[in-house]
Amino acid sequence: MPLTETVGTLPEGQAGLTLREEFYAGDGSRRREYAGVNLGVLPWFNLGYYFTYMHSALGAGGQGEMGDSFLRMWFYTGDYAGDRVHTGMLLQARLATGRNVYRDSTWRNLAFGNNELKIGPVIQVDFGRVYLHGNIFYVIREKDREGFYNRLRLNPLDKEFYTACMGLNPAARDSFLQRKLLDNDYAAAACAVNTSKIYPFVPYAEAYVSRGISPDRATRNLGIEGSGRTALLAGTGFRWFFSQGAYAGAYMMISPLHGTLGVRESLGVEATAQF
Question: How many C-beta atoms lie closer than 10 Å to residue 49's C-beta?
């Protein structure tokens, strides 16, 4: 969903194509296109790649520019409680293909232009034909081009591979998890509910909240997600399923805490096809 990750897993050997268009009101009227492909690599593992493209006007014309890209790794971890509880783990890397927000605020909160790594669990609980979804993530975020993956030690022939625990030892010099590098990280949580009672029409509602763990001064002054203020979004939408693997839908989102992300409200349309 637009705000909430779910446990939907592609079967092995299949692929899914997703297209989405979002229209934003707030600090100027802008829109963002989102497209990507997802691959069922193994019965329990999906690999996806997504990219964004931004426009400075709601309609035709205006400035257009490539935004950030995302590499998405999904691990399905099983069903429990008589097949009523379903779980998984998401690892998603933001690739810095967009404009650097630390130096240019043109696409603030639509693109970041630095690396991020988001990881956390996803759960679904079934109540008959009503489904409750929830997820919570920790997001490791790069400061202004400070270096990111180069702090990992992945060569087993390098002695730091062991002394730095592959670069994950917080006490090691230039570690990926060194305390001073985590000041601008943030945590995010989302929940949603939907129902298949009137399938192929599937309505849903969702909410999303995030806040910086210990935001540094630079991040706080930018007014981006994960800064000193709590970001809260709520949304509702629907999807119409033409088949089990193809749907189109529309949704809207609002920010009850006005101005926390520079966005008051947004509308979106989307489509997905599985083949």
Answer: 14
